[in-house]
Amino acid sequence: MIENRLISLDWAMKRLLRSKSNFAILEGFLTELIYKKENENITDKKFKKYLKIEEILESEANQEKDSDKFNRVDIKLKNSDGEIIIVEIQFSSQYDYFQRMLYGVSKTITEHLKLGENYGNIVKVISVNILYFDLGSGEDYIYHGTTAFKGINRDDTLELSTRNKNRFNREKVSDLFPEYYVIRINKFNDIAKNSLDEWIYFLKNEEIKSSFTAQGLDEAKETLDIMQLKGRERLKYERYIEQLRDEKSYAITKEIELEESREKGKIEKTLEIAKSSLKQNIDISTIALITGLSISEIEELEQK
């Protein structure tokens, strides 16, 4: 049994999830993503880690305007540990997206360090990227990136001293540096093997199965029911979804046109090589080997 179709998370981030009453939805998703591995071996619920949102911070795309870009949505929030989490949803392929992730994190760090403040006050930033296109090359659909310093000669890992741990309240060097999560939605095979996969299923299909138990999904089912959208808000949402479809169709069309243009260019180059070879009285069978054209195709060129 599948529940009613739900509002997509990107729309909810723009319109609904900045309300404190709806924080539980994002808290559930981010807890499943960031603390899932740490919580797996903890049986007592009271000892499990969880993420608590303190506030939603201003960022470039935290604006409700009709002129907002449809292919990108982001939200910046601060958790109860003082860390800043950037959640970004991107639909259109972007060749330099890795650098964009780096820029977004770097900009956030500098924005939140006051002039004259010690570097020890640099805020921890976690970048969560939900992508509806294939970024990079790999078989997985969720990737996690951290910073570690490896010894060139001894292959050991540089660790924090006891003094550093006490001063910064961190256990590892990587805890001081930004973290990155890349979720490639298109690579998910729709088989939810665990609670985090249940969230990925929802992100891909905008549906929540009645058997799903992941944190935040009950709240999502209740809050993100499309049937709750009324009048003008419903029309805005439908227009938003239509715009996304149009953009996706446009992107696919441009890719096809580009591929066709490349193919046409290859064919024209091959024909030019064949014509040039004929002018030099090169044997037709040799030209066929060089160009991949058939004997009959080369004979046709010869007759023109």
List the helices and strands and how they pair.
Blueprint: H1 9-15, H2 23-39, E1 53-57, E2 72-79, E3 84-90, H3 97-111, E4 125-131, E5 142-145, H4 162-168, E6 179-184, H5 195-205, H6 217-223, H7 231-279, H8 284-291, H9 295-303
Parallel strand pairs: 3-4, 4-6
Antiparallel strand pairs: 1-2, 2-3, 5-6
Helix pairs in contact: 2-6, 7-8
Task: Tell me about this structure.
The protein has 304 residues and is α/β, with parallel strands linked by helices. It folds into 2 domains: 9-228, no CATH class; 247-303. It is 43% helix and 12% strand. The protein has 9 helices and 6 strands. A 6-stranded mixed sheet has the order 1-2-3-4-6-5, sandwiched between helices. Helix 2 packs antiparallel against helix 6 and helix 7 (231-279) runs antiparallel to helix 8 (284-291). The longest helix has 49 residues, at 231-279. The N and C termini lie far apart (66 Å). The model is unreliable at 66-70 (pLDDT under 50).
What's the overall average pLDDT, rounded? Answer: 86
Number of helices: 9
Strand order of the largest sheet: 1-2-3-4-6-5
Element string (H = helix, E = strand): HHEEEHEEHEHHHHH
Into which percentage range does the β-strand content fall? 5-15%
Oligomer: single chain
Helix content: 40-55%
Report the sheet with the most strands, covering strand number, pairing sense and barrel closure: 6 strands, mixed
List keywords for this structure.
304 residues, alpha/beta, six-stranded mixed beta sheet, 9 helices, 6 strands
Brief overview, please?
This protein is an alpha/beta fold and 304 residues long.
